[in-house]
Amino acid sequence: MAIKLPIYMDNHATTPVDPRVVDAMMPYFTEKFGNAASRNHAFGWAGEEAVENARAQIAQLIGATPKEIVFTSGATESDNLAIKGVAEMYREKGNHIITQVTEHKAVLDTCKRLEKDGYEVTYLPVEKDGRINLDDLRRAITPKTILISIMYANNEIGVIQPIAEIGKIAKEKGVFFHSDAVQAVGKVPVDVQKDGIDLLSISAHKLYGPKGVGALYVRRKNPRVQLTAMVDGGGHERGMRSGTLNVTGIVGFGKACELCRLEMAEETKKLSALRDRLKEAIMSKLDETFINGTMEHHLPHNINISFAYVEGESLLMGINDVAVSSGSACTSATLEPSYVLKALGVGEDLAHTSIRFGIGRFNTEEEVDYVANRVVETVNRLRELSPLYEMAKEGTDVSKMNWKTA
Amino acid sequence: MAYSDKVIEHYNNPRNVGSLDKKDPNVGTGLVGAPECGDVMKLQMKINPDTRVIEEAKFKTFGCGSAIASSSLATEWVRGKTVEEALSIKNTDIVRELSLPPVKIHCSVLAEDAIKAAISDWKKKAGEGDAVTQAGAAQAHS
Fold first, then answer.
1. Cβ–Cβ gap A329/B37 under 8 Å
2. Which CATH entry fits the domain spanning A19-260: 3.30.465.10, 3.90.550.10, 3.40.640.10, 2.60.40.1120?
3. Which of A 317-336 lie inside 8 A of B, CB atoms?
4. Fewer CB within 10 Å: N-end or C-end of chain B?
5. Which pLDDT does position A406 carry in this prediction?
């Protein structure tokens, strides 16, 4: 089968919408286009029915009940709603929030804003494997702690946090537990009951659904979580998030979740086999390559590799028919290298050489083989150009050099 | 990030990649940048001590496409020039030639530094010890 170029292997950034999801959405654009809140006619009822159906599909994927699903414009909004919503609602109870350093900016920046408003935030460090230390968490909790927010799986390095253990600790201490599960839902079995999660952020476009829609799971029992709404208006979503529902997006979101639930077991097998094939093909042919983050608690379809002595952006330029991303400063808008890799203790020089591969539902073995070859070819070519590789081969310890006087 | 055709051309066909003998008294070696910054350039020149003409230039770079292109271009430009002519090459000339966007201007600055560092090294070996050039290179780089 001929490979279609360019190849997309950046499924942590976004995913293509599954054609079956597009089919499910279509009628809601031009035929059943009613506002789901129009209570008085068939157009509205059709919209409402579709939304409630989707709610159930999403709830089923994560072990929740439909009433606990609040629709938003995406996981960034869900993160904002969860953290700010709890902070404001429980202000009398306390003002301390615990999170960790490798969270997505949607969580970190929300916490930074709350700090400006007088809240105290503890940012737990991670160990070299990318996971938090549970004792650090226990020690950080005070009588004023009202929320713990720890992501389920990291978007750059694919590492999965000890979620069930965190849930247990949170429950013991009577603190709400929010998890940004954007990268995990639909990929690994997430169960809010088993994992002891009270609030969960989900994004449709990360699991083969459309962009512009997401959800926040808000627990109703044991314990009941209340939130101050961040978007006021017509009182939609039980007063938690006003605004006309994105019916077409929601229908797609629901369908995407249903497909994930039905196909997850098979798909996980296929994707981890492809990921391992890619890893083996690349690392067996190149020296001085390093995996970032532990592979023991890891998403099945992700791998983040540093290629010593080769800068990330130049590597991406060399494999310009493959879409992946890098932790190099040159690829970021702010010229800062990846803060996630920095938090792991990966040296800045190696952070600049990292590439993130996110394999997806539509990637094939042929594509994986092609990508592996292109990567190996390009790394070798760029190492020929690299003064650092030359020095390393000569026996100079590049890390010990004093670069100011070179 | 859209690269200019010239940057892509230099990236795909870099000029003068390689190394000269560091110990040759007629070779000046400039090594600038730092791995933590994501940019390291090594530029070497073989200079005729009598005519002061740069007869050969080679480079190796750890950095993005613009950094590779800037240093590749630098080796192209210094060849055949005298030391004094090479010292007058400005980073802005490189920016113009390669159509570098603002966020990549620092790559051209590093290339200019590399030229000056290589010449400074050669002068030191030749016993010229040009304090002005060395101070200039150190200042531009800090």
1. yes
2. 3.40.640.10
3. 317-318, 328-330, 335
4. C
5. 44
Question: Does residue A399 have a pLDDT over 90?
Answer: no
pLDDT band for position A405 (cuts 50, 70, 90): very low
Q: Which are the catalytic amino acids of A? A: 330
Cα A327 from Cα A330, distance rounded (Å): 9
Which domain does B66 fall in, by range? 5-136
Which part of chain A has CATH 3.90.1150.10?
7-12+264-388
Asked whether residue B141 is assigned to any structural domain, the reply reads: no
- Total structural domains within chain B: 1
What's the gap in Å between the CA of B129 and the closest CA on chain A?
Answer: 16
For residues B4 and B95, give the distance between their C-alpha atoms in angstroms, rounded to a whole number: 11
Q: Which residues contact A310 (CB under 8 A, 6 or more apart)?
A: A353, A379, A382, A383, A386, A389, B62
List the Cα angle A129/A313/B9 in 5-degree steps: 160
Task: Determine the residue of chain B that is closest to A327 in CA distance.
Answer: B38
Cα of A72 vs its chain's centroid, Å? 16
Is A388's Cβ below 8 Å from some Cβ in B?
A: yes
Q: For residue B142, is it within any domain?
A: no
DSSP state of B104: G
Q: What is the CATH number of the domain that holds B79?
A: 3.90.1010.10
A to B CB pairs, distance under 8 Å: 76
Radius of gyration of chain A (CA): 22
Report in angstroms the alpha-carbon separations of A339 from A101, A105, A227, B83, B97.
8, 10, 30, 43, 34
> Nearest to residue B70, comparing CAs of B45, B101, B27?
B101
The top-level CATH class assigned to A7-12+264-388 is alpha beta
For A308: left if phi > 0, alpha if psi spans -120 to 50, otherwise beta; the answer is beta
How far is Cα A225 from Cα A88, in angstroms, rounded to an integer?
12
- How high is the pLDDT of residue A328? 75
pTM over cut 0.80 = yes
A384 has a chain B CB within 8 A of its CB? yes
* Contact at CB, A347 and B32, closer than 8 angstroms: no
